[in-house]
Design brief:
Length: 295
């Protein structure tokens, strides 16, 4: 792996007795677009807020670009862009005032061209008051402000919420372009299609713990298969047991479908004594693999 931009070691966060995340370990290399996926409440935002020093961990450590996220947070924030899931800004300002304020905050000067370029891409009206903007337009403002200082690392937490399909397409194309220039992107989402479209590696988080860390293509090519069987007689999942069957999807009447992690030859051999009307074996979609790990 290339130089680590994010290095998380045994990171935990508890809110009293409630679990946020528990013993999370991640290493993200320079130049990656890394996916971080799980449903709401799985621990994605908690992990990100610790990285940004918005909350303190209960245990473990995290480093960004070799710097400790607690002790060296000021240095880190100069080189990090962040798009939160709930985009907000100073509502008393107009868009232009807010974005120029952000540039001054980051010490960015003479970057009017960058502001104009990004505002045009996202069709932002710079004269509009932020208080008047829809959720989608506030999200656009958040995306633009996260990129004005040309960060080395961009952290995205559910960044497409509120964006229409055209703006999403523009946003993804922008991310690919920035990544090609060297930007590392940490993309957190509960939408698997977004992760699949952009990322080469993904971590799946469930109930505060990383349950799978894998290359997207490797995850696709796992031995796991989706099997459909139409029997010539009645069948139920309760009376059909073969080693390697996981995550039965349907099982009633003459139809049975399931995820299978065993040897296909063994499966065919075991089915030889049954009356089979139809048999289909295919690669599961990435979404089906994801749901398999969550069940």
């Amino acid at each position: 792996m290339s130089v680590s931009i994010i290095d998380i070691t045994d990171l935990s966060k508890f809110y009293g007795k409630a679990r946020g995340i528990e013993h999370v370990n991640l290493e993200i290399g320079e130049g990656e677009i890394f996916g971080f996926i799980g449903p709401n409440g799985a621990g994605k935002s908690t992990t990100i807020r610790i990285l940004l020093n918005l909350i303190f961990p209960t245990g473990g450590s995290a480093r960004i670009m070799g710097m400790d996220v607690i002790r060296e947070t000021k240095k880190i924030k100069r080189q990090v862009g962040y798009v939160p899931s709930d985009a907000s800004a100073y509502t008393s300002m107009d868009v232009n005032e807010f974005l120029n304020y952000c540039m001054r905050f980051y010490g960015v000067q003479n970057n009017a061209h960058r502001l104009a370029e990004l505002s045009e891409l996202f069709e932002l009206d710079l004269k509009r008051k932020i208080a008047e903007l829809s959720m989608g337009n506030r999200k656009k403002v958040s995306i633009v402000q996260s990129l004005l200082h040309n960060p080395k690392l961009l952290i995205l937490d559910e960044p497409t919420t509120g964006l229409d399909p055209l703006m999403q397409a523009n946003f993804f194309e922008l991310l690919r372009s920035e990544n090609q220039k060297g930007m590392t992107i940490f993309f957190s989402s509960h939408i698997l299609g977004e992760i699949q479209m952009l990322c080469k590696r993904v971590a799946i988080i469930k109930e505060g713990k990383i349950i799978q860390l894998e290359d997207i293509e490797t995850l696709r090519k796992k031995q796991l298969k989706k099997v459909y069987i139409e029997f010539g007689d009645q069948v139920s999942k309760g009376n059909f047991s073969i080693p390697g069957i996981e995550s039965v999807i349907t099982g009633s009447g003459t139809l049975l479908s399931f995820m299978y992690s065993g040897d296909i030859n063994e499966l065919v051999g075991l089915l030889a004594g049954r009356k089979i009307a139809n048999l289909m074996i295919e690669e599961p979609s990435l979404e089906e693999i994801f749901m398999h790990y969550y069940k």
